[in-house]
Amino acid sequence: MDISVFFKPSNRDTISEGYVYQTNQLGKTIKKFDDPENFPSLDGCLIAIIGVKEGRGSKYNESCDNGPDVIRKHLYKLWGLGNLFQIVDLGNIEPGHTIEDTYYALSSTIEYLVKLNILPVIIGGGQDLTFANYKGYQNLEQLVNLVSIDNNFNLGFIDDDLDAQTYLSKIILYQPNYLFNYSNVGYQTYFVDPAAVELMQKLFFDSYRLGLVRANMEQTEPIVRNADIVSFDISSVRKGDAPGNFYAGPNGFSGEEFCQIARYAGLSDKVSSVGFYEYNPEFDNRESTAHLISQAIWCFLEGVSQRKKDIPSSLDNNFLKYRVFLSDSKHEIVFYKSNKSDRWWMEVPYPNNKSKYERHHLVPCSYADYQTACNEGMPDRWWQTYQKLI
């Protein structure tokens, strides 16, 4: 497939404003599509940045289509990653004749890149683009996990059209369905219908309130580590740190916490695509939100550079194996601890005739989950996954 037909060059004048990048700045090390005659080669690339200038699916925040190049302006000025791996910036997917055309261009690009083991980083546009990101996995013949960093679930109603407020229900109902698990990190209760929380529980999906997450940010790491797709909505950050969004509110993650979650996503060997959505320059005071998103992307890239390739295996000597028997439930839980990173996983049994679940029976967890099991408690992560596997 020739994905170059989907892209237009980013505007180098808007991005650089005459600035001359130094040797170790990203603006110097990233291969860029800023010349209409020369689409960059993907050879040797590990990361591909994709701008999407599509805001029609983001009600009241449509100007998020202007976000990609503003984010690039600040991203390119950041230092420190050196030549750890090759990053390519493919430019921008322009709005299609219909919004479905844009979705097709993005999902086709995602599928192509993931098959090449190139990790797409999507910037700009509304969070409805998460649906297109998800569709990019349709032909990869594997179940996937989606984690959304957001202040609400974006379920909407069954009869609603697909947009940034309803994309999750469209993913859940999409056929063929290849969503194994959905996790929301940072929802704010007053934005969420209690019936939606009950639905999450019935589907054995995970949802974590903002206050609980902020009280122990380290517990976010195993949640994000279990994702294939991570979707960041900038409205999950409080307005004081990220005003560049129509829905920005007084509560949410701090800028530091947002970057910390992005780094966790980068560290995960499983995460294969990530998107940063809903940034609207129209509301952004002195482009402070663009600064934050660029720093979050940098943290994600820095996390990727430190991946350990430590997915557990019973034959791998780099893991310590612990067996905990729960007398009350008569379940034995097998835990793995990595000698490389000190991260934990737990093994969840699945039927032998359901090989499609093979990628999901090793569940990222924390030391706290191991302690829970040692105290005769059933870790919530284990039980929810077990219910989906049986």
Structure in words:
The protein has helices at residues 12-16, 26-29, 67-75, 99-115, 129-135, 167-173, 194-202, 210-215, 220-225, 255-267, 288-305, 367-374, 380-389; strands spanning 7-8, 31-32, 45-52, 86-93, 119-123, 144-149, 179-187, 206-209, 229-233, 273-277, 319-326, 331-338, 344-347, 362-365. The chain has 390 residues and is α/β, with parallel strands linked by helices. It folds into 2 domains: 3-305, Arginase, Chain A (3-Layer(aba) Sandwich), CATH 3.40.800.10; 319-389, no CATH class. Strands 1, 2, 3, 4, 5, 6, 7, 8, 9 and 10 form a 10-stranded mixed β-sheet that branches. Strand 7 (179-187), helix 7 (194-202) and strand 8 form a beta-alpha-beta unit. Helix 5 (129-135) packs parallel to helix 6 (167-173).
Keywords:
20% strand; ten-stranded mixed β-sheet; 390 residues; 2 domains; 14 strands; 31% helix
Strand/helix succession: EHHEEHEHEHEHEHEHHEHEHEEEEHH
Structural domain tally:
2
Radius of gyration, in angstroms, nearest whole number: 21 Å
Measured between the Cα atoms of the first and last residue, the distance is 38 Å
Q: Class of the largest domain in CATH? A: Alpha Beta
By secondary-structure content and strand pairing, the structural class works out as alpha/beta
Helical run tally = 13
Relative helix content: 25-40%
Number of E-type strands: 14
Poorly predicted runs of 5 or more residues? none
Which CATH architecture of the largest domain? 3-Layer(aba) Sandwich
